[in-house]
């Protein structure tokens, strides 16, 4: 299987090179040259299979023969053995026909672990095979960073540099990152927003001299290796509720559009998904785009769901590429307009194609808080504020006979202040994180200055 860039000017790559590249050399994102197709029979055969078996099958379709079958099996088994629930991603029925898909049973309590546990093992394998060391750079609003640091800590093949927006993550998220003291882990608290962190990471990739000398690699969902692992749970959840014979819908708390794009990929592969619902917090650029056909940046306001406080939604570019008929020139035009004037109009055909697949809704701060409170009162179930955004939007939709699955993207204990404010309950951290508040922290505060960030990384990376 080959992967092509959404901007059409970078060479097509195989799975391993696409994973190591992260962002394509032309600034685009890699997508499969063609979508693997799954028959109804193949999908039905997932029923009752362990999570790791389904992961091995689905991911294997994108890997091809680039990783030996036994090695891929070992990677997948190791990744999902790190989860604390036997089903890995269990479904819980919140109310009739509305389920939450709990994606937070991994080591750092957020859905990012599902992909990161796979990606770190995969990168380690590819780099070891090639006798190389890489510099991993990543931007985080809190969850990607903690999952990545946990997954890559202590690995000899990589140094990892994670940029988070100073003061804009929850304390638990920050401590999950900054209390990991392994020599290959570096936390940068940037004076800026998540979008500034993401811009800095993309600028490093677009600085080709720096990229090559540091052997840069990325762990954000711009990396195809993240998306591929997230496709799996859409299949697992849908089949558990009757697919392929019964279609299902998903509501996804959305920021960088990686998670919901994985659902779109599952649909393109043949999974019968009726509705893919984008749920945003007050930073609602994606909902506005679906409503108006114009992607228009405004300022980012801090919310109780900080991991979704995003304006530049990277993976939306992958959807633009697909919905514009894989026209890389059109994508280049839209991305240039975004850079120049902070907005662009989607071509009519593209917005129509997107509206045919996606719905969107926003949950404001009060509504999200009320949703946490009501769900606790009515169902004795504690939602984290990101999942609450999804549940709130899903509840507002017209009822359908098909199951609705809202993705539960984080454990409530990661956001204790918001949960306590809504319910009076403070969810305890699990045993392995119980002493988190007493652990020593290590981080460096840097100005939002590209050359300062590059200098910092250049001086510490062992890949150079
Ligand atoms: C807890 C949580 N929910 C939802 C999201 C949004 O996911 P995505 O960025 O893939 O849209 C994030 C961040 O990515 C997150 O950390
Ligand atoms: N919400 C994310 C933001 C980065 O998203 P990613 O999925 O592209 O890594 C976070 O928690 O860091």
UniProtKB/TrEMBL annotation:
Matches recorded under Pfam families: PALP, THR4_C, Thr_synth_N
Gene Ontology terms describing biological process: threonine biosynthetic process
Residue list for modification N6-(pyridoxal phosphate)lysine: 112
PROSITE patterns reported in the protein's UniProt record: DEHYDRATASE_SER_THR
Cofactors required: pyridoxal 5'-phosphate
Keyword Electron transport: no
The protein's enzyme class: lyase
Residues covered by the Threonine synthase N-terminal domain: 2-80
Listed SUPFAM superfamilies: Tryptophan synthase beta subunit-like PLP-dependent enzymes (SSF53686)
Domain Tryptophan synthase beta chain-like PALP positions: 87-329
Pathway: Amino-acid biosynthesis; L-threonine biosynthesis; L-threonine from L-aspartate: step 5/5
InterPro entries xref list: Ser/Thr_deHydtase_PyrdxlP-BS (IPR000634), Thr_synth_N (IPR029144), Thr_synth_N_sf (IPR037158), Thr_synthase-like (IPR004450), Threonine_Synthase (IPR051166), TrpB-like_PALP (IPR001926), TrpB-like_PALP_sf (IPR036052)
Domain of life of the native organism: Bacteria
Keywords: Amino-acid biosynthesis, Lyase, Pyridoxal phosphate, Threonine biosynthesis
GO function term, MF aspect, one: pyridoxal phosphate binding
Catalytic reaction list: O-phospho-L-homoserine + H2O = L-threonine + phosphate
EC number: 4.2.3.1
Protein family membership: Belongs to the threonine synthase family.
Descriptive protein name: Threonine synthase
Organism, scientific name: Devosia crocina
């Amino acid at each position: 299987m080959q992967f092509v860039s959404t901007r059409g000017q970078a060479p097509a790559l195989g799975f391993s090179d696409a994973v190591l590249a992260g962002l394509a050399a032309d600034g685009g994102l890699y997508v499969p040259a063609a979508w693997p197709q799954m028959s109804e029979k193949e999908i039905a055969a997932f029923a009752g299979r362990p999570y790791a078996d389904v992961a091995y099958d689905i991911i294997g379709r994108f890997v091809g023969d680039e990783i030996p079958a036994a090695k891929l099996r070992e990677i997948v088994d190791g990744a999902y053995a790190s989860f604390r629930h036997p089903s890995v991603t269990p479904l819980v029925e919140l109310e009739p026909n509305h389920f939450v898909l709990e994606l937070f049973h991994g080591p750092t309590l957020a859905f990012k672990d599902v992909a990161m546990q796979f990606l770190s093992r995969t990168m380690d394998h590819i780099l070891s095979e090639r006798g190389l060391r890489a510099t991993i750079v990543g931007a985080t609003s809190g969850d990607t960073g903690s999952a990545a640091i946990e997954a890559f800590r202590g690995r000899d093949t990589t140094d990892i540099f994670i940029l988070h927006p100073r003061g804009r993550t929850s304390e638990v998220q920050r401590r999950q990152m900054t209390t990991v003291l392994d020599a290959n882990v570096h936390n940068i608290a940037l004076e800026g927003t998540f979008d500034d962190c993401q811009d800095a990471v993309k600028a490093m990739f677009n600085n080709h001299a720096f990229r090559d000398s540091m052997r840069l690699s990325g762990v954000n969902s711009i990396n195809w290796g993240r998306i591929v692992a997230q496709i799996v749970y859409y299949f697992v959840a849908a089949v558990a509720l009757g697919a392929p014979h019964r279609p299902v819908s998903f509501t996804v708390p959305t920021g960088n559009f990686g998670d919901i794009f994985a659902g779109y990929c599952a649909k393109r592969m043949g999974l019968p998904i009726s509705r893919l619902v984008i749920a945003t917090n007050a930073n609602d650029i994606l909902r506005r785009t679906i409503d108006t056909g114009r992607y228009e940046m405004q300022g980012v306001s801090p919310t109780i769901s900080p991991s979704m406080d995003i304006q530049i939604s990277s993976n939306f570019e992958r959807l633009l590429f697909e919905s514009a008929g894989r026209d890389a020139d059109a994508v280049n035009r839209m991305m240039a307009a975004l850079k120049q004037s902070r907005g662009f109009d989607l071509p009519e055909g593209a917005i129509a194609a997107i509206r045919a697949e996606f719905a969107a809704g926003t949950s404001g701060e009060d509504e999200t808080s009320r949703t946490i409170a009501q769900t606790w009162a009515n169902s004795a179930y504690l939602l984290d504020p990101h999942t609450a955004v999804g549940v709130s939007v899903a509840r507002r939709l017209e009822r359908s006979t098909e199951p609705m699955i809202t993705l539960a993207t984080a454990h409530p204990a990661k956001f204790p202040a918001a949960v306590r404010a809504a319910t009076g309950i403070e969810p305890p951290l699990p045993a392995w994180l119980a002493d988190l508040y007493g652990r020593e922290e290590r981080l460096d505060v840097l100005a939002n200055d590209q050359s300062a960030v590059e200098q910092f990384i250049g001086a510490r990376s062992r890949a150079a």
